[in-house]
Amino acid sequence: MKQVKGSLCYLIAKFAEESEHYEWLFEHKEVTNFYIRRQLAMMMLPEVEDTVEDPHNMLIDRSKLLVDSFKYIATLDYLPGSFFVKFEEEQATGPGVLREWFLLACQEIFNPNNTLFIACPDDNRSFFPNQASEVNLLHLEYFQFSGRMIALALAYDVQIGVVFYRVFFLQLAGNGVLLEDIRDTDPFMYRSCKEILQKDAKIVDQDVLALTFVCEVESLGVRREIELCPNGKDIVVDSKNRETYVHLLIQYRYITSIAEQVAYFSKGFSDVITKSRLWSFFWCLSHKDFNLMLGGRSDISVEDWKAHTDYNAYEESDLQIS
């Protein structure tokens, strides 16, 4: 099939219709490219219109952007609808203002100071639900609101400069999380788990790891131990159970500890994309595809940009350019 990739992509781009089923194609992503997968994913999203007779009118105070946005979006019974956004004491309206609002509101959602999401240590554009988000009493409602906002941003084709951890994307797509999935998300934990699994069995059975089936978590500045299984504090990690230990540790860190947050985010997402289409939306995209749609590219080359710029009536050295 790879030999006819170009022709297949052309046919899909030209003749694909929303009513058709493409499950067979989702199984063979290698015969498509990002633009085709994006086209199919966008077909799963609701159509949005910039001009309708009865849009959702929102008056937003920039100093209370997150609170005001939550007040409007969280209380809507019908989504996606159409939105008319105006900032207080400003005259500008229209699609540009709507896109600016999407961008600013989503940046506030993922602002670590708001405790909903935490950024990857190695990539401050990449986010994951914060297991300590309960410091905000309305945190679950805000996760549902966040799911609505992300789905709406995708439907309106607004790139918000934010991407998701692989393990977060996998859970939204209904998939499990394995050790290899945390390689980039948590390199330190990944290396530690690999070391546990690869260490000589005789050495492990001498209890040199000094580990039991517990993990330490911190919430509101308080550290506590969580048992990974019943009586976990009394079970020593050895060569026979170390794979189970690593599996349970990953499940707790990346699934159990944020299960409520992910569930409410998914609920908000499915308020915009119906559950019947949610599976197809995620199934036709890879993690990289989704992040390109949501966050755009982060590797823009300024030098390449300059090299391919046409200066009509100007020179590169002109004051207006330089």
TrEMBL record:
Residues 84-322 form the HECT domain. One of its GO terms (molecular function) is ubiquitin protein ligase activity. InterPro entries: E3_ubiq-protein_ligase, HECT_dom, Hect_E3_ubiquitin_ligase. Keywords: Transferase, Ubl conjugation pathway. Pathway: Protein modification; protein ubiquitination. It catalyses: S-ubiquitinyl-[E2 ubiquitin-conjugating enzyme]-L-cysteine + [acceptor protein]-L-lysine = [E2 ubiquitin-conjugating enzyme]-L-cysteine + N(6)-ubiquitinyl-[acceptor protein]-L-lysine. This is HECT-type E3 ubiquitin transferase. Its EC number is 2.3.2.26. PANTHER family: E3 UBIQUITIN-PROTEIN LIGASE UPL5, HECT DOMAIN UBIQUITIN-PROTEIN LIGASE. The keyword Repeat does not apply. It comes from the Eukaryota.
